[in-house]
Structure formats: structure tokens, C-alpha cells
Amino acid sequence: MAMQPVAAGRPATIHDIAALCGVAASTVSRALTNPDRVNVRTRQRIQAAAVELNYTPNSQAKALSSGRTGAVGVMVPDITNPFYFDLIRGTQLQLKAAGYTQLLVDTEESDEVEASTLEQLRKSADGVIVAASRLNDDTLAAAAARMPMVTINRDVSGVPAVIIDTPAATSQALDHLISLGHSRVAYIAGPATSQSSTRRWATLSDAAEERGVEVRRLGPFAPKTQSGAAAADAAVHSGVTACIAFNDLIAIGMLQRLRERGLRVPQDMSIVGCDDIFGADFCNPPLSTMASPIEQAGRVAVSMLLAQLNPLAGGITRSRSVMPTHLTVRGSTGPAPAAR
After folding, report:
1. Is the same domain home to 239 and 277?
2. Which one, of 127, 97, 65, lies nearest residue 305 by Cα?
3. What kind and span of H or E run contains 171?
């Protein structure tokens, strides 16, 4: 992309970006404030031009001069969990294109750390994106009333949210296992405070009842690879032939533990993970898992937050956005032992 001159001393405008990209100024405005309304290739070209020209939105420049910080907090429960890598990348790119700085916080799977951090961010950030909050509904709603907020994978009345529809993929996973002859399936639950885990179990138990198969809940387990050993032992003890795990990390830990015990996957036990993190297809065997548009969820959350921060910019304020998911079948699922 060839650099176009901008008059000395004059900040770049959306018209400069439009001229550089060969699009209308209104398209640039939509791409920077409500990006899901612009096709991906055009949006990426506009965002790259905005970075190249060091563009700062007028609304953001005014905000900085009126006491705003120009920063947005992004809070995740565990920064080492690969699920959040793409999410953080999505929020980072979207915020940078809009002229904001991202303040990344690891809340350590702790509701206390999360609550204290939210209070601190009221002074250091203009708004906050909270992924997989461990706070109760009342506390989270009260925090959202004090500062602009969007949650990811946490549905609380009155709080704008991006929901990754993993319950739908959970039903797909159950149907996949039933088609392979499995009639005794375990759900390896995540943290007790995880709304996503609760929603998946509710969907899974209803689907199992409709289909006439047995599904039991095991756990809760911390969403880490180390939890997989205990989860695998519990699954073997329960007598199930297949498991749907809360996330890929637990599922990968289960693969390792089952191998240590001399059990074969999928011949003796089928395993399904969730999130399709980097490396899920490198496992032995490659992990069947529920794939999510994680980076896009981060971008949409930023778009929803910017609509709160800059209501005059023309973006559409949404209170809820649901991201679709799907099952990716790999080598960790196969016919039930009795079906051979």
C-alpha cells in the first residue's frame, strides 16, 4: 500500500483513508465503528490504512482532550489458555484501528481479582471487555452500570454481550457420538462459576433425554491440561464410553492420562474437546472439538463497546450478538467399543 501524503501538522481524516483505499468516506466510518457491516477484505484494507496514516478518530481525539484515557481494558480469566490468544488478537487489532490502547488483564480465574480490577479500570480505562466473567450476575450488572462494558460468554440482563454458541455445537457432538454407537456419555464440566459450562450441561442433558441416551456430569474441573488426569480417571470409573470436555486443555490432558493407563483413544474411549485451540489437530490422536470464531468474537465485542463510547459515530448499538459454532471431527472419536 503506497503511502499518501497528509499535510504537515494536520491529523489524518477518514477522507484521507477513503482516498488511499479508493472507497467512500461512509464506508471507512462503518469499517472503524461497526466493522461487521463491511466485508472482510475491505475492512482489513481500511484498518491497515488507518494504522499507516496514524489516524485517530475525531471522537477519540475529543475524548482525550475532555479527560478520557484513550484506553480500553480487556479482562481474561487465564492469559496462558490458548483460547484467549485469538480473542486478544481480535480486540487488539480492532481497538488499534479505532485509536484506542488495549489494557490486558489476567484475572487468574478469581472473582476477587476480577472485582478489584474492574474498580481500578474505572479510573484508567474508558470501557472494558470482560471475557468469561467469574462474578455473580448482580456484581457484574452493578459494574456495567458504572462504566461502559461488553461481556464475552457471559449473559447477564442489561449487560451487552457476545455469546459464542457452544451449546449448539455440544448437541452436534452428542449426535456425532450417538451415530458412532455411544449411549453412555460424560460431560466433563468446567469451573462451577462458568456460565458457559452451565449452559452446555443444560443443553446436553435436554438433548440426551430427547434422544434416549445416558449423559452424566463429572466435575467441576479447572480449565487446564493438568485437570485432564483426574477427569480421565473419573470418566473411566463412571463406565462411559465417550466424553465431551469443557475445553480442549482438559481434553488434551485426558488423552495423555488415558495413554498412561493403557487405554486407547478412540478404540476404548472417545473424547471431544471445545474451542479448537492451536495444537488441537497436533494431538495423538488429533482432537475432535467444537470450533468457535474466537477472533471475530473479540472484534464484535470491541464494535459493541465503541458504539457505547462514541454514540455519535453512527454505529448500531446492540445488546447481544451470538457467534455460531460447529463440530470439527478428527481422530479422537470413533465407534463405541460394543459397536465393534
Report:
1. yes
2. 127
3. helix 166-179
For residues 315 and 306, is the Cβ–Cβ distance under 8 A?
Answer: yes
Q: Taking a C-beta distance cutoff of 8 angstroms, is the pair 332, 287 a contact?
A: yes
Q: Are 287 and 255 in contact (CB under 8 A)?
A: yes
User: pLDDT by residue (tens digit) across 103-115?
Assistant: 999 999 899 999 9
Beta bridge partners of residue 162, listed in sequence order: 152, 321
**Residue 126, number of CB atoms within 10 A of its CB:** 25
Q: What is the CATH number for 282?
A: 3.40.50.2300
CATH number at residue 34: 1.10.260
pTM above 0.85, yes or no: no
Backbone angles phi, psi at 302, to 5 degrees: -65, -45
